[in-house]
Design brief:
Structural class: alpha/beta
CATH topology of the largest domain: Rossmann fold
Largest sheet: 7 strands, parallel
Number of domains: 2
CATH class of the largest domain: Alpha Beta
CATH superfamily of the largest domain: Glycogen Phosphorylase B
Radius of gyration: 23 Å
Number of helices: 18
Length: about 500
C-alpha cells in the first residue's frame, strides 16, 4: 500500500484502518508513506501507523529547506505536490510542477518502493492518483495495481478542465491566460460567462500552467490500474467523466468506521466540562490568521457558554475538519450568527480542526470577529485519538461542505450518536437520510446560508428529533460501515484482480 502524503487528512485515516483490518483478515501489508517531523507527532508516519510495517519517506529535510528560503522541490526527496492550491505552502499544487519536477517526484518514490520491498508483493494498492503510480509502473509493470481515489484529485482535475474551457472560450492557451490574468489584460467585459470570470478571479491561473500535462498523466495512471476504488457513487461518476475510464473498471467501496473506538462515551457533566476546559483554556490549540497554535485562547469563565443558569449542559453544535474552501466553514459561521437569536436555548458552536496555518478563502475566526457573534469556539487541530471524546461532548454534527468527496468524519459522528447537518451534494448523499423512515440528519441546499440556519434551529430546538436521528445514525454505521465488514469487500476485490491477472 502506498500513500504519498504525510499523515494529516482523511486518506491517512483510511490507510491506517484499512491496513489494520486487512492484517486481521490474513493479509500481510507493507505501507510506504510520507512522513513529517519526529516520533510522537501525528504527522510522523511510524507514530501515526503504529503497529504496521511502514516504510517512511521523510519530508522533514525538504520542509527545512523551504523554511530557509531554499528549494523544497530539490534534493533526494522533494516535498510532495498537492491537489490543493494554497498560497506560500511547502506543497505546491501539482499543476505548478513542470516535467522535470514531476519526474523528480517519480524517481524519489522508486527509491522508497525499492526500500519497502514492493518487488515481493502480490498486489499494489495506491491511495490517490500521484507520481507513485509512475514509479510503481517503472519498477513492476506487471504487478496488478489498484487505485483508491479520495476525491481531492478529482476536484483538481475538474478545476483544470474548467480553466481550460475558459481559455478556449478566450481563444488562448492556459499558460497565456495566466500571463493575461496576472498582468490584468483581461478587461471586465471579456467574453466569458460570469461563472467563468468568477473562476478566474478566485484562481491563481499561473499555478495551473502544467494542468493539461498533469491531467494526461493522471488519466494514463488511472487507465493502467486494474481496478479503481471510489468512495461514493458521486465520485464514481466524476471519475468516469474526468479520467475517461470505463464504468466496469470502478468499484464503489465507502470508507469505514472503527465502531468500537467511535462509540459515544457516557460523559458526566463535570467530565465534559473538564475536557472543554483542557481544549479551550488550559491547552488551547486554536489559531487565527497568524497561523500560530494557541493564538486563540479563552478565559475560564468562557466555559459558562456551555451550561445554562442552573449549571445544566446546553446542546453543542460541532464542526470537524480542515479550513478548505469546499468545507464552507465561513458560511457555517454566518448561518450560526443568523440562527443563534432563534434558539430556544443557547447552543455553542465548537469548530474543531484546521491544520495549523492552512486555510482557503476567509479565515473562519476572522468572520467571527467581523460579525461579533458570540458562542463560537475554536479548539484547533487535535489528534484523531481525541476525536471520539470531542464528538461525545457534542449533540449535533454540522458540516455544510459542497461536493464533499466522501465524509469520513460524518460517519464517525454518526457512530458516536450525533445527527448530522450537511448539503445535498457529494459523498454524504450516500449515507445521510438514505434509509426509508429512519432519517439520521438534515440535508440543505448547498451555499444556502438561510436554509443552513433553519436546519440549525430545528436541530437545537427539537431535542426529540435530534435524539431519534442520532439513534438511527449509530445503527446505520453498525449495519453497513464498520471496517471489519468492509475488509471482506477489499479481500474479494484483491482476489478478483489477482485471478484476472493470472
Amino acid at each position: 500500500m502506498g500513500l504519498m502524503f504525510y499523515p494529516r487528512g482523511g486518506s491517512a485515516q483510511v490507510a491506517r484502518y484499512l491496513s489494520r483490518a486487512l492484517v486481521e483478515s490474513g493479509w500481510e501489508v507493507v505501507l510506504a508513506s510520507g512522513s513529517l517531523g519526529v516520533s510522537g507527532q501525528q504527522t510522523h508516519s511510524a507514530t501515526f501507523f503504529a503497529g504496521l510495517h511502514v516504510e517512511a519517506a521523510d519530508y522533514t529535510p525538504a520542509l527545512e529547506r523551504f523554511e530557509r528560503g531554499e528549494d523544497q522541490l530539490a534534493g533526494p526527496l522533494p516535498f510532495h505536490g498537492s491537489f490543493e492550491d494554497r498560497e506560500a505552502a511547502p506543497d505546491p499544487i501539482f499543476t505548478a510542477l513542470d516535467a522535470g519536477q514531476a519526474q523528480a517526484q517519480v524517481s524519489a518514490w522508486e527509491d522508497v518502493f525499492e526500500r519497502a520491498g514492493f518487488e515481493y508483493v502480490n498486489i499494489i494498492h495506491l491511495h490517490h492518483l500521484t507520481p507513485m503510480h509512475e514509479a510503481a509502473a517503472r519498477l513492476w509493470p506487471h504487478c496488478p495495481l489498484v487505485t483508491h481515489l479520495h476525491g481531492t484529485e478529482l476536484k483538481m482535475l475538474d478545476r483544470i478542465e474548467r480553466l481550460d474551457a475558459a481559455a478556449v472560450a478566450l481563444n488562448t492557451r492556459l499558460d497565456r491566460l495566466a500571463i493575461a490574468v496576472e498582468s490584468d489584460e483581461l478587461a471586465p467585459g471579456f467574453p466569458l460567462p460570469e461563472t467563468e470570470r468568477e473562476l478566474l478571479r478566485r484562481t491563481n491561473v499561473s499555478r495551473y500552467c502544467y494542468g493539461k500535462d498533469w491531467a494526461a498523466r493522471l488519466q494514463a495512471s488511472a487507465r493502467a490500474s486494474r481496478r479503481i476504488i471510489c468512495i461514493s457513487s458521486h465520485d464514481a461518476s466524476e471519475a468516469v467523466r474526468l479520467l475517461g475510464v470505463p464504468d466496469d473498471l470502478i468499484e464503489v467501496i465507502p470508507n469505514g468506521v472503527d465502531a468500537d473506538l467511535f462509540d459515544r462515551a457516557a460523559l458526566t457533566r463535570d467530565e465534559r466540562l473538564r475536557l472543554l476546559r483542557d481544549w479551550l483554556v488550559d491547552d488551547p490549540q486554536g489559531w487565527d490568521e497568524s497561523g500560530l497554535v494557541g493564538s486563540i485562547r479563552y478565559p475560564l469563565e468562557a466555559l459558562e457558554a456551555f451550561t445554562n443558569r442552573d449549571g445544566e449542559l446546553l446542546p453543542v453544535l460541532l464542526f470537524v475538519g480542515r479550513y478548505l474552501g469546499f468545507k464552507r466553514v465561513p458560511l457555517l459561521v454566518r448561518a450560526y450568527a443568523r440562527a443563534r437569536p432563534r434558539f430556544e436555548t443557547p447552543a455553542p458552536l465548537l469548530i474543531w480542526g484546521g491544520s495549523p496555518g492552512e486555510w482557503e478563502g476567509e479565515h473562519p475566526h476572522t468572520v467571527v470577529r467581523e460579525l461579533a457573534v458570540d458562542g463560537v469556539f475554536f479548539s484547533g487541530w487535535r489528534g484523531h485519538d481525541e476525536l471520539p471524546l470531542g464528538l461525545s461532548c457534542a449533540d449535533v454534527f454540522v458540516a455544510p461542505s459542497v461536493d464533499e468527496p466522501f465524509g469520513q468524519v460524518f460517519l464517525e459522528a454518526m457512530s458516536c450518536g450525533l445527527p448530522v447537518i450537511t448539503t445535498r451534494t457529494g459523498g454524504p448523499l450516500s449515507f445521510v437520510n438514505t434509509v426509508a423512515g429512519k432519517p439520521n440528519g438534515w440535508l440543505v441546499a448547498p451555499d444556502d446560508v438561510d436554509a443552513l440556519a433553519d436546519a440549525l434551529v430545528q436541530a437545537v430546538n427539537d431535542g426529540a428529533a435530534r435524539r431519534e436521528r442520532a439513534s438511527h445514525g449509530r445503527q446505520q454505521v453498525l449495519d453497513a460501515y464498520s471496517w471489519r465488514a468492509l475488509a471482506g469487500r477489499f479481500d474479494a476485490l484483491y482476489n478478483d484482480v489477482l485471478d484476472r491477472a493470472s
